[in-house]
Design goal:
alpha+beta, single chain, Dipeptide-binding Protein, domain 1, globular
Length: 635
């Protein structure tokens, strides 16, 4: 279990590895860049590397340069398997792959004061952006002064940057050091850095060209009009277009192992960053592979055909456990291997009803705890396990993993056993005992009880899950429909309070991110993948100016989480976290199904330095702690 203790902080300092680089490593200059170096357009490797690179210990061996990763993305403007090969390079800290303790990564050290109101972050010396411009603390201050504190770019400053009404104070100590200071303890600030820090790292030298603090108004508006926008903040967002650290604007300088070279309608291609700040144990600059080619796929079935035909070198998110026998069957023909990691999702599919539904009759039904308990007990999780996961997963209610300090067995078993008789009895008890001529339950107002589950089919097997769950819910008389939609549409409809129900998976099941992001069990903010309580979350986050005022039980729930963020005592923090999960187990805000599932990963047989097993989850940044920059083609 992760602990932010004195021992850990000592490890943060000790684990920072430096390498004095005076010449190219044993592999010599990178062939892909050799002509640029020869022409003088690019300095030699020794001058491109920082004085304090991160040294990556190889899984198997020092690699060789060259090649292109062929992979996929479901959306040209969002996250895909191409990002997994590079994405989290600017996470200031990352989870250790063994025990999820947090280690320095892009940052050299992250050190708190004794009361954890102040955190000092020191960065590696000599790091450069992909265009060769030096990285410095000014890039972090640009985020703080010109993005976070600019009302046009940040309309509402939320947790953790605003705590109890006061905004964090960020101060530049020197060119490599910044200080974050709050008036209350922030024991989980280092946890937040795992996922939030890429957003804090912005190239000031590039983005300041599109900011009114640095550009005359007439010049800025001329650029705005030339690009077809109406306001400067729209232009700024376009120029800073990215998913976490991975650029979606080819002009945007990056700190990842690759910069965007091509963004087309059907693919995006990334090429190596000549100034990347990681090396192997022999001083060779990483990454080894030159390019990443992410092809747009219309659905996961397209990806399966590409696998069988040997047209991809790596997929993880687009892999489907239902196809595991097929993957194994075509391994030789497709020149790939099928690995099985363990999913870190405590539930592969978590269902949410809209408790803030615009229609009063549906809102009353969804807010009745008996309805949510009945729907949970009407799910035959073992059938889901056998049908989709070949019996290799675990039926479980929505909660954290059993390795978490917040876990209790009763949280995982609450209202989980398949009991359609008990489900029918609860539905009858709440006044849904009348049925129409087709056998469907009627609402108290005489209308048929029907609703639609809208969802995005990505990462975990969504469509086969909802097909089974909808059928099981129909068997207790509820007319359930389902409809697959795009991620873009989901991102509009769910936060806009336009959906009846949806489902996603639980990526906040580890101690890395459950305390800071207890998604689906606390109304932290309106979420794109959740329908439970967006309007209540909006009310909390705007001090009551927007959204709807929640009932007292929800105010108490949110209060536990707010206190968890600033509580200095770990014992009390554990108690608060368990309070949250105990209420989830009682109220079933979110309905879990299956957890601890095997996650297939497809890998070209010629690729080396990829671990055969690991934990696959957003909470631990998927494969980031395994340093994908060290992958290479042995051919």
């Amino acid at each position: 279990m992760m602990r932010t203790s004195l021992l850990f902080l000592t490890m943060v300092l000790l684990l920072t590895v430096s390498l004095s680089v005076s010449a190219a490593g044993t592999l010599g200059e990178i062939p892909f860049l050799q002509s640029l170096v020869d022409s003088g357009e690019l300095p030699p490797m020794a001058e491109r590397l920082p004085q304090e690179p991160l040294v990556v210990e190889p899984v198997e061996s020092v690699g060789r340069y060259g090649g292109t990763f062929r992979t996929v993305t479901p959306n040209i403007n969002s996250f895909g398997d191409d990002h997994l090969l590079q994405e989290f390079a600017t996470a200031w800290v990352t989870p250790n792959r063994h025990d999820q303790s947090l280690e320095p990564h892009f940052a050299k050290s992250v050190v708190p004061s004794e009361d954890k109101t102040t955190w000092i972050v020191t960065f590696r010396e000599g790091v450069k952006w992909s265009d060769g411009h030096p990285f410095s603390a000014d890039d972090i201050m640009f985020w703080y002064e010109d993005i976070l504190r600019n009302e046009d770019l940040t309309a509402n400053i939320g947790n953790p940057w605003r705590v109890d009404g006061e905004v964090v104070q960020v101060t530049k100590i020197d060119d490599l050091t910044v200080q974050f200071q709050w008036h209350l303890p922030q024991p989980y600030f280092i946890n937040r850095l795992v996922h939030a820090s890429p957003y804090l790292t912005n190239p000031k030298h590039y983005l300041s060209q599109f900011h009114p603090r640095y550009v005359e108004e007439d010049d800025l508006m001329a650029m705005v009009e030339a690009e077809g926008f109406e306001r400067w903040d729209q232009l700024f967002a376009y120029k800073n277009s990215r998913w976490m650290a991975t650029a979606l604007n080819p002009e945007l300088p990056v700190l990842t192992g690759y910069h965007l070279a091509l963004l087309a309608g059907d693919r995006r291609v990334y090429e190596r960053n000549p100034y990347y700040w990681k090396v192997d144990v022999e001083g060779n600059q990483l990454p080894y592979v030159d390019r990443i080619d992410g092809q747009l796929i219309s659905d996961t079935e397209v990806a399966q055909g590409m696998v069988m035909g040997g047209a991809v070198d790596f997929i993880g998110m687009a892999a489907d456990i239902r196809n595991y026998p097929m993957y194994r069957q075509y391994e030789e023909e497709g020149n790939y291997q099928t690995l099985l990691w363990t999913s870190g999702y405590s539930s592969e599919a978590v269902y949410f009803f809209n408790l803030n539904h615009r229609e009063p009759a549906m809102r009353e039904i969804f807010q009745d705890v008996r309805f949510r308990r009945a729907m949970s007990m009407a799910i035959d999780r073992q059938e889901i396990n056998e049908t989709i996961y070949h019996g290799q997963a675990v039926p479980i209610q929505h909660t954290v993993l059993d390795s978490s300090m917040f876990y209790e067995p009763e949280f995982a078993s609450a209202y989980m056993d398949y009991d359609p008789d008990a489900a029918n009895a609860l539905l009858d008890e709440m006044g849904l005992d009348q049925r129409d001529g087709s056998g469907w339950r009627l609402r108290p107002d005489g209308e048929r009880l029907t609703f639609t589950i809208e969802y995005v089919d990505f990462e975990t097997p969504k469509t086969p899950n909802v097909e089974l769950v909808a059928q099981q819910w129909q068997e207790v008389g509820v007319d359930v429909r389902y409809r697959e939609i795009s991620g873009e549409l989901q991102g509009q409809r769910a936060p806009g309070n336009l959906m009846d129900a949806t489902f996603w998976h639980n990526g906040s099941a580890t101690d890395v991110n459950f305390p800071t992001d207890p998604r689906h069990v606390v109304p932290t903010h309106p979420r794109w993948e959740e329908t439970t309580w967006g309007e209540w979350a909006r009310w909390f986050n705007t001090d009551g100016e927007e959204g709807e005022e929640p009932p007292e039980q929800i105010k108490e729930l949110r209060g536990w989480w707010d206190q968890l963020q600033v509580e200095p005592s770990e014992e009390r923090r554990v108690e608060l976290g368990k309070n949250i999960l105990a209420l989830q187990a009682d109220q079933i805000w979110a309905i879990g199904t299956i957890g601890k599932a095997p996650q297939p990963i497809i890998l070209n047989r010629d690729i080396r330095n990829f671990r055969e097993n690991g934990l696959w989850a957003w909470g631990v940044l998927w494969n980031a702690s395994h340093h994908p920059e060290q992958l290479y083609f042995d051919r």
